[in-house]
Write a structure and sequence with these properties.
The complex is a heterodimer of chains A (about 400) and B (about 170). By secondary structure, chain A is an all-alpha fold. Chain A has helices at about 5-20, 25-65, 80-90, 100-115, 135-155, 160-190, 195-200, 210, 215-225, 240, 250-275, 300-320, 330-355, 360-395, 400-409. Chain B has six helices and no strands. Chain B has helices at about 5-25, 30-50, 50-75, 95-110, 130-140, 145-165. Classes of the chains: A mainly alpha (about 400), B mainly alpha (about 170).
């Protein structure tokens, strides 16, 4: 084992040697190394988070045909640091009648619910916190803590808008959790494991995005809903309820929500990369060739992972800044009448075909899985079109196609 | 005392303390939040026992669904959130006696199980507990019948919920 093929464990063993050399008991040394490891992981995530503030502001500026931050430092790179200093020295206001303890715990819990996700995020084949055999359920559990934080913030602020935001968030999260859990079963079926690292390794030959593109699409939609980002940002709809659940928070307490949201979006970009794009690996067998052995170096893998995660994050931002907010009844109907049935169909299809087609040669298996998804997608679109036509007929709205024909006549 | 025992005792104290707060705190929402703490402590107990699946499911189901629905219901009754009346009734000693009785019974029952004082052996390192659980749930030698019965019950509850929600529409 050298520093280059297993950096974290290498440093761990070295530290262990140093600490036991100081006559520390072995148990205490191990505990200390774990604590240091956790702190380093959190610091890495939070430092990345500072960079994400800049990335988010630059990208949104480009989508809106602006320049974004460009005054402080080269390309405005020091802007997030200035933002942090501003947030820290701002006055900290606790509203009258707020439930002080709950009010102060909420932002911490919101940030925690995101940071715990980093425990199972494999940055490279040898750089990961813990390889849980229930990794995918862990994602759902962390999401539950996030919902709890938002409810606590909304309720304890003693503000009607905050409470409304919390209400909307609950209905949003509880509904979109269902397609998400169903879709998380698809990588589980394809990889035969719920371990996040196992799922990454199972994709060394073929990405799950190709085996099940519909699952990727549904996961992306429910992830955006779980993040509470536009078009599902009803919990903080600024034109209706000002800022929703974090309306009363000032300074760094607001900063925790903001930082948590950005890191959450990036982390879900990372999970999209892991579940559907092979995470740190997934080079279609290229890394097994001698000429591409450098792809297996952990630092290269970590860079590949961050690049893929950034792509997922960019797609989430792209959706956020292009799609307008949808009404709450539309949002719930979209989930219960469209996403849940569709995800169930995709799940049954994947479970059956995965067992039937596995006897075929690999290229036929991939083609069959991909083709079945395309067929399901096409049938879904056709059903939606027929339904839309029926509804327009019932409401006496002229069919756009029929209308043009009449005009032509 | 091993490190595991210390963690177990601390978590047990947290679970019981939080449970006590649930029934004594006067603010309804605080009671619900203490319930979350208590349920989370139970998840930690499962994790100590190497039951990863149960620990995570405990958080998903009890905190993610049940506790949040509790809080949701409590938030809808904000004006009544503070309970101002007496916290005990005149016949409070009856449930105390009953509780002590059940506790004694449980302790006697657990102590009578053979091998209860033995330290649990660690799970073999290669064992995938989730896979073993999944196999047990669908294996005819194990729990397939209770599993299917529970599934049918839940389906019935689901159909019932849909019917109740749409009953008044003709």
């Amino acid at each position: 084992m050298t520093f280059w093929n297993n950096p974290i464990n290498f440093i761990g063993y070295w530290l262990n040697g140093v600490l036991t050399g100081w006559h520390l008991p072995a148990v205490l040394a191990t505990l200390l190394i774990y604590v240091i490891g956790i702190i380093v992981m959190i610091l890495f995530a939070m430092t990345l988070d500072i960079g994400l503030v800049w990335v988010e502001r630059k990208v949104v500026a480009r989508f809106q045909d602006r320049l974004g931050p460009n005054r402080i430092g080269p390309f405005g790179l020091i802007q997030p640091v200035a933002d942090i200093i501003k947030m820290v020295i701002k006055e900290d206001i606790t509203p009258d009648g707020a439930d002080k303890i709950v009010y102060n715990i909420a932002p911490v819990l919101a940030a925690t619910s995101v940071i715990v996700l980093w425990a199972i995020l494999p940055l490279a084949s040898t750089i990961y916190g813990v390889d849980l055999n229930v990794g995918l359920l862990f994602i759902v559990a962390a999401g539950a803590l996030g919902t709890l934080a938002i409810i606590m913030a909304g309720w304890s602020s003693n503000n009607k808008y905050a409470l409304l935001g919390a209400f909307r968030m609950v209905s949003n999260m509880i509904s979109y959790e269902i397609p998400m859990v169903i879709i998380l079963l698809i990588p589980t079926i394809l990889a035969d494991t719920m371990s996040v690292r196992g799922i990454t390794q199972a994709q060394s030959g073929m990405w799950f995005a190709i085996l099940s593109p519909l699952a990727l699409l549904i996961f992306l939609i429910s992830a955006i809903a779980e993040l509470g980002r536009s078009p599902f940002d009803l919990n903080e709809a600024e034109s209706e309820i000002v800022a929703g659940f974090h309306i009363e928070y000032t300074g760094m307490k607001f900063g925790w929500f903001y930082a948590g949201e950005l890191l959450h979006a990036f982390t879900f970009g990372g999970f999209i990369a892991i579940l559907f794009f092979g995470g740190y690996g997934g080079f279609f067998g290229l890394e097994k060739l001698a000429a591409f052995a450098w792809l297996n170096i952990p630092f290269v893998q970590a860079l590949v992972f961050i690049a893929k995660a950034m792509f997922g994050y960019w797609v989430i931002m792209w959706v956020k800044y292009s799609v307008p907010r949808i009404r709450i009844d539309h949002m719930l109907a979209f989930n219960w009448k469209f996403l849940v049935p569709l995800s169930l169909v995709v799940l049954v299809n994947t479970a059956l075909l995965n067992k039937i087609l596995i006897v075929l040669p690999n290229w036929l298996y991939v083609l069959g899985m991909f083709g079945s998804n395309i067929v399901i997608g096409y049938v879904t679109v056709e059903i939606l079109r027929a339904y839309g036509r029926k509804q327009r007929k019932a409401e006496q709205i002229p069919d756009p196609q029929a209308h043009t024909q009449e005009q032509a006549v | 005392m091993t490190a595991e025992q210390i963690i177990f005792l601390l978590t047990g104290a947290l679970v019981l303390g939080a449970a006590l707060m649930v029934v004594t705190v006067r603010n309804l929402l605080h009671a619900a939040l203490w319930l979350v703490v208590s349920l989370f402590g139970v998840a930690v107990l499962y994790a100590i026992l190497q039951a990863n699946f149960l620990a995570v499911v405990q958080v998903v189901v009890y905190i993610g669904a049940i506790a949040i629905l509790f809080i949701f219901a409590v938030m809808l009754t904000r004006r009544e959130a503070m309970e101002k009346g007496r916290q005990t009734r005149n016949n409070w000693w009856i449930p105390v006696l009953l509780g002590l009785f059940i506790l004694t019974g449980l302790v006697v029952l657990i102590l009578s199980v053979p091998g209860v004082e033995r330290t649990a052996t660690a799970l073999p390192s290669g064992l995938d507990t989730v896979q073993a659980l999944g196999m047990a749930l669908v294996s005819p030698d194990a729990y397939v019948l209770p599993f299917e019965v529970a599934s049918v019950l839940m389906l019935a509850a689901l159909v019932g919920a849909v019917y109740v929600a749409t009953a008044d529409k003709k």
